[in-house]
Q: What sequence folds into this?
């Protein structure tokens, strides 16, 4: 909308410094919008071309998913090492955690496994406490 306001004011005969004050932009920005319109017309004015980088891991997404579904990694460090071995792309454990969240995986903190229990001693202890 700001670009079209700049163009409208330019069409009304205003100059770039005056337009810049009215739309609260710098004169080089106003001149850039005017030159953009002169160069490409309405199509260039309405184009929203912003840069959205994608990870190199996205190219290997399906192979990583199948690998981790068959053998889930125990830690982010292990996942990073396996991804590097599988794809050749090295990433830090934090970046691997972020990528794994995008593919729908989460890390879960494992609890301590209980020690082996001697059931006879356990029953004897329960009888002794209850008496």
A:
């Amino acid at each position: 909308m700001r670009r079209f306001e700049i163009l409208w004011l330019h069409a009304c005969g205003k100059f770039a410094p005056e337009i810049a004050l009215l739309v609260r932009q710098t004169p080089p920005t106003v001149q850039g919008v005017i030159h953009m319109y002169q160069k490409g017309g309405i199509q260039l004015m309405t184009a929203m071309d912003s840069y959205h980088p994608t990870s190199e891991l996205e190219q290997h997404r399906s192979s990583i998913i199948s690998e981790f579904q068959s053998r889930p990694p125990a830690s982010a460090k292990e996942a990073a090492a396996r991804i590097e071995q599988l794809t050749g792309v090295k990433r830090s454990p934090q970046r691997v955690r972020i990528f794994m969240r995008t593919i729908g995986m989460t890390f879960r903190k494992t609890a301590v496994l209980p020690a082996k229990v001697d059931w006879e001693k356990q029953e004897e202890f329960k009888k002794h406490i209850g008496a």
Summary: The chain has two domains: 2-46, 56-102. The CA atoms of residues 117 and 123 lie 11 Å apart. The mean pLDDT is 87. The chain is about 65% helix and 0% strand.
